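Quick check before the chapter quiz. The format below is the same one you will see on the exam, so make sure you can read both the input and the output lines.
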Amino acid sequence: MSTRRVAPLLASTAISVTGDGIFIAAAPLLAAALTRNPVAVSTVTAGFYIPWLLFGLPAGALVDRWPRRAVMVASDLVRGCVLAGLTAAVLLHLVSVPVLVATVACVGTAQCFFDSAAQACIPALVGRDKDKLAHVNGRFWALDTVGRGLAGPPLGSAAFAVNRALPFAADAASFFVSATLVRNLPHVPAAGGPHEKIRTAIRAGLHHLVETRDLRVLALSMGAYNFAYNASMAIFVLYAREILGVPAAAYGVLLAVGAVGGVVAGWRARPWTRSLSYRQTMTAACAAQAVAWAGIAITANVWIAGVLLAVSGAGASLSSVAVGSARQALTPDALLGRVVSAFRLFGLGAAGLGALVGGATASLYGLTASLILSATVLAVAALLTWPFVRR
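Here is the expected output.
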């Protein structure tokens, strides 16, 4: 089966995203141990997203002119070396908040290159058949959810409690192992084409995104999806504590239930989406999220919330599969890295705006209002995403 050609990438994803989950949990803990200044601690979290806003589009343009397997190996090695340096700094008591922020930014910048190359090489390895892309992308995002949402964060916080340097050493090792696995991928050559100026190359990728109707609709739908999701998640810890009565120690368990839903949907993505178009799948994801947030807001019951968070997690995986598969199927190989990075940039911007609006809405009208806002935005997005006219 041709999907076996991508097995080393899936294996490297399982290992490296678990390391990412460890790092995502441990970095803020280290920042809080170094300073009690909320602004300083928040810069560490911001460091995870700023590289995509600054370097995402140029990274996509460069990925489209470089051999993609080599890009992924180099990105993993850079991340491994940077984290090894942070581990040494922690052991020698030389770490500071600026050092930690710089490390997060370097790791995030390398991730811009790795993620664009990884998504771009999948159709080169398995082809552009819708069923195969759904199969591979479903497993890709299921593994991502397991590592980043289920396994990684608990391991990161537990390792940090044992020794502050341990989680960063583990993340560094995960990237070195990932690089070794990626080297076993079949050779994926550079996409080819003229090496125009970076600005011109970026413009070409954005033009393809805007001019391809299904991609344009999916980009807008994904933006609405990310906006709505983060409008609720930005204040959900407060909603869980004050409305649902969830103790602090159990909050992570509640979120893990949502991750389980994402894993199941990702693993079953191929049969679940076989009879649906990309836009129909995205519609289903938006509808699932709308039902989840509306149900949580209306019932205010922790047990129902757990079930609905699993539905929300399933919607998240289906949206990733729909968007990822559509990009790979509808974009020429020479433009794929740029289109992937453009989607990520758009999605992150919408996510940040959604978090701000969700917080402001909760402040003005109460915590439940943010969930109702999310459900409303998602319902409208589902309606506008559905392809009413068969072309």
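If your answer matched, good. The mean pLDDT is 87.
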